[in-house]
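Risk register update: the risk of archive-format incompatibility is retired. Evidence:
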Amino acid sequence: MDFQTVVSLILVFAAVVVITYVFATVFFRETAVKAEESARRGAMNYDPVSRFIQPDVLIQVRFAAAFLLGGIALTVMLFLQVSLILALILGTLIPALLGFYAVLLHFRNKAKKRFREFEKKILDLVMGLANGLRAGMALPQALEVVSRDIGGPLQEEISIALSEYRLGVELPDALDHVYRRMPAEDLKLLITSIRLSQQTGGSMADVLDHMTETIRQRTIFQERLLTLTSQGRFEAMAISLMPVAAFGILYMLDPALMSPLVTTGIGWCGLGAAALMETIGFLIIRKIMAVEV
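Archived output:
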């Protein structure tokens, strides 16, 4: 394949990428805007990813990443003079799909990190509320003071709940809206305790003290469980990376033996099949080690 043919194919691919990108972003824009409006109203289908990026922008970024990685992979294969059509198609689609879902995975990981930060601070919130109530504060005032001292995602969510409370929403209902966005079991327990204390008129500080001990024991159990499953997660990562390391070592030792894998269509198909099976195996092991508590 001469240089002129390669350039022509790259230009054609670039034109297809631009046309498809424009069509896809326009087609999905309306759906993304509706999802954003639903999230702002605090609906049950709230997507925590929208906290970091607008839904329509997320779709554009995902398609851009897919076309970028697919285009790079196609260019590399054309440069290596891969002529098998099936290898070209698979070698383009697989990186494109990886790029399309890698962006979403990145923002989902950011949302999970924010949720973990929120969940870790609930114990501090409960302890601070108990101390504040004993000091003579009202519950909304104690929530505001304690959340401001804690900071982070917890302060952001509690501030939203207090804003709704000032607009006439009952405090347990406002906290329920927080639970919809941040479904932490300890927060649900706190909301239930507040609701029951308001209905029965009992000492909320005493209830929060017992709740503090419950949350502390749950945290200890979760940390132990995380320690016990850490070996399985490490094994999943090690097993998945072993073929990549073996390929790199063998390629350095004997390039002539391993070069058909990256210079022929059958070799690229084999690499794609191996990558697919490795990914499936990694996901299966991670699913086995993911214990819900």
